Amino acid sequence: MKDTLVFDVRYIQDGVFNNHEVEIPTSQLELDLEDVRFINPVRGTVQLLRHSEDDIYVKAEIFTDVEMQCGKCLEPFEEDITATFELQFTPTNNPGEIEDGERYYDGETFDISEDARQALVIQIPVWPLCSQTCEGLCYECGINLNKEHCPCQNTDEIESETPSVNSPFAVLPQLLETAKSENKSKSKNRKEIISKDGTSKT
Questions:
Q1: pLDDT for residue 117
Q2: Domain-by-domain residue ranges, the chain?
């Protein structure tokens, strides 16, 4: 079991897949996203293939478990996320010759940690739901409708009506809409943070 995503090209055989089982601490991949808690290490399989004068083809499948807050009922829940990605690294002594989007290495090792981080982050839902059938909270009394029967009248019509201003939960719809907007903004920022040049250098 390998505990790093740095690989030494000297030990990659030509023309055959070199398989590696990996288990990486989430701290090593800087997976410290707001509102998301990574529960377990990142595990998976990385396949490496040397070809065409030391070009390295990489195919990886990784997975982990996260804890998030449901966007409707506000309860924490756990979900497993899986990511797959493929890369190709080319050896070079002059990074200036590499075009945008290409991967390269200029020594005896290369690192796919950032690629793994990006692949996992993009799998995290913008608006997480504990289930597709989540009933959410009653806009009138705030009861979690997944756990209890709502005592309010016309419960089925509450979502389509304006909540009573006297209810302490009257602002709940607005709060949920604000949370949706914030999550969408975070997702946009998350994608903007991901590097667009795709280069990797060790």
A1: 94
A2: 6-130, 135-195
